[in-house]
Amino acid sequence: MTTLTKPEAQPTPQGSEHFLSVRDLYVQFATEDGTVKAVDGLSFDLDRGKTLGIVGESGSGKSVTNLAILGLHNPRNTTIAGEIMLDGQELTGASERTLEKLRGKKMAMVFQDSLTALSPYYTVGRQIAEPYMKHTGASKKEAKARAVEMLGRVGIPHPQSRVDDYPHQFSGGMRQRAMIAMALVCDPELVIADEPTTALDVTVQAQILDLLKDLQQETGTSIILITHDLGVIANTADDVVVMYAGRAVERGTVRDILKTPEHPYAWGLLGSIPRLSADVNVPLAPIPGSPPSLLNPPPGCPFHPRCAFAETVGGDRCRTERPQLPDGRGSACHLTVDQKRDIFIEQIQPRLR
């Protein structure tokens, strides 16, 4: 594995007895235009039976991070550095054979687009049964019975007949349930759900999230929930990492992030969520500008070109100095604790009521 020349590492959360521990993770892609710094010094922990929400806009590094955990990046154009420990086993630099043994059995992923993630050439039941046969040595008959069981477990009606259907014969919500069944067929200890409610209507979204919670309670599975929507994780996650431009800019419990966020980017994400109590004549307040190019990210704080409070810090600090994410609860921002509190109470909190 290629070694990166890394800038000063961010402080990392304390504690070493975590089921999943990611430390100082860097993921870079070699392209014709240059090197894409997709993940830039990321650290977080996940305990057994808990749910971690990773939140951020498209391009913030959420999916790239979790594909690195699973070892699904193309090694020909990807450079990965840092530490990924899963139940005491180092995944960074592990052989493909080792990762194949872990994928499906120890860790699994629910991909974002179930229609493209499922093969159109094979029945849903066969695609669920295949990893079960691979990891358990079960016969085709046993694996099909397991597929029927899993389809019923995730709420597919008449699983005995639907097991022989193809993905195009399932609705969007049913395909997403089938993806969850495939991820859970070998009872993995870690499930990564990448935008599992994308393109689903609100009712089905709630059903999918409730399903993940129910299955977690049954099996004690640890879950990483990737989303751009703080509303999705409100009643699902235990802890949250807010990502921007490949970095963690804020970390805390779900209550911390939703009730007392500290980073201007988190304020922007919360402010863009519609509220039933809001005046319908008042438009939502989007975050101005666009996410930065990861080919050439801005110096200093990556959010400063879009931040309404960069001038509050004073001088060129936001433009020249990279803010560090403190241990435990905190945010990577140059605003002082008092400034964050005053801005939130006076300007941000009234908009969130």
Automatic annotation (TrEMBL):
<dbReference type="Pfam" id="PF08352">
    <property type="entry name" value="oligo_HPY"/>
</dbReference>
<keyword id="KW-1003">Cell membrane</keyword>
<keyword id="KW-0067">ATP-binding</keyword>
<dbReference type="GO" id="GO:0005524">
    <property type="term" value="F:ATP binding"/>
</dbReference>
<dbReference type="InterPro" id="IPR050388">
    <property type="entry name" value="ABC_Ni/Peptide_Import"/>
</dbReference>
<keyword id="KW-0472">Membrane</keyword>
<dbReference type="GO" id="GO:0015833">
    <property type="term" value="P:peptide transport"/>
</dbReference>
<dbReference type="InterPro" id="IPR017871">
    <property type="entry name" value="ABC_transporter-like_CS"/>
</dbReference>
<dbReference type="Pfam" id="PF00005">
    <property type="entry name" value="ABC_tran"/>
</dbReference>
<dbReference type="GO" id="GO:0016887">
    <property type="term" value="F:ATP hydrolysis activity"/>
</dbReference>
<protein>
    <submittedName>
        <fullName>Peptide/nickel transport system ATP-binding protein</fullName>
    </submittedName>
</protein>
<comment type="similarity">
    <text>Belongs to the ABC transporter superfamily.</text>
</comment>
<keyword id="KW-0547">Nucleotide-binding</keyword>
<dbReference type="InterPro" id="IPR003593">
    <property type="entry name" value="AAA+_ATPase"/>
</dbReference>
<dbReference type="InterPro" id="IPR003439">
    <property type="entry name" value="ABC_transporter-like_ATP-bd"/>
</dbReference>
<feature type="domain" description="ABC transporter">
    <location>
        <begin position="20"/>
        <end position="270"/>
    </location>
</feature>
<dbReference type="InterPro" id="IPR027417">
    <property type="entry name" value="P-loop_NTPase"/>
</dbReference>
<dbReference type="InterPro" id="IPR013563">
    <property type="entry name" value="Oligopep_ABC_C"/>
</dbReference>
<keyword id="KW-0813">Transport</keyword>
<dbReference type="GO" id="GO:0005886">
    <property type="term" value="C:plasma membrane"/>
</dbReference>
